[in-house]
Amino acid sequence: MYPDYQDALAEAELSENQLPVAMLYNVLIQNARLHHHDCVEFTVVVQGTGAGWIDGKRHAMRPGTAVFLRPHHLHAIQSNPGDPLHLYTCLFDEQILFDSAYDGSLREVLLQAGDAVPSCFHLPKLQSGQIVQLLREMMNEYRRDEYGKDIVLRSKLIEALARTVRHYMSSHDGRPAEAAAFRRPTYRTIWEVVRFIHLHFAEPLSLKELAGLAGRSEAYVSREFKKATGMNFVDYVHKLRVGRAAALLSATDMSITEIASEVGYDYFRTFSRAFKALKGMPPSEYRKSV
Q: Which SMART domains match (predicted)?
């Protein structure tokens, strides 16, 4: 089974100068099979029950469940018989999280979704009601063509994400387990480098290319990247690639060789060594254990 790729923002037929945001309200009668896309997905369950799978892990879904998926996270959803899921979904370009220097603390948390921060968790009734209301207002705004539409959409999206993260932080002693590792760098260009890596980690990458992207020296980018993420560039890329490979091992029947190539490794030995270093076992054993 190979996951489907969905170019969700392209399907929304947005104009060139339009904010890259698409709003959906779905009643899930038919299951959403395993898929991924290159935009961020923020979904909140309004009513109904069911289950979702994110990178091979099952999560119960019920009113108040919030899901935040970074680009290329593998996911599928199904409703329980007779109780279909009603979902508000916002799809948006990850660049929106990098547009303002004032959103740094929010960005730091969201970039860890699926890692130190769970991609799926449940909001209490009061908080979920607030988020659903914001998404409802976003949907109404999305359907109009009035002055300031993009400004309103972005402000409500950031508020909805901030309120969701606020609840998560308050229920986890104020900080995710590894948030201290993500410190605000001196220059915004480093976060542009981080974003580029998240979108292109399965492609050949070099520190020289990233330095060119940032308009800085390789030494500067290397130093500031480690300050920002707590990891050097090579280890960070390995972490993203191995995380993606683990998801494919769990959720698909692709061969291990195919997976190694899919996540960016030209040599199987390099992939196997990196996977074992990060997961504590070879890819074949990992597949048997999940």
A: HTH_ARAC
Same domain, 209 and 85: no
Residue 270 placed within a domain? yes
Residue 5 has pLDDT above 70, yes or no: no
Roughly what angle, to the nearest 10 degrees, separates helices 218-229 and 189-200?
A: 80
Same-domain check for residues 244 and 199? yes
Q: How many domains does the chain fold into?
A: 2
Judged on CB neighbours under 10 Å (0-12, 13-18, 19+), 264 is buried
* SS3 state at 225: helix
Measured between alpha carbons, how far is 58 from 38 in angstroms, rounded to an integer? Answer: 22
Q: Tell me how far apart the alpha carbons of residues 259 and 272 are, in angstroms, rounded to a whole number.
A: 11
Phi-psi region of 114 (alpha: psi -120 to 50; beta: other; left: phi over 0): left
- Average pLDDT value for residue range 249-276: 92
Question: Shortest CA distance to 24 belongs to which of 9, 36, 35, 34?
Answer: 9
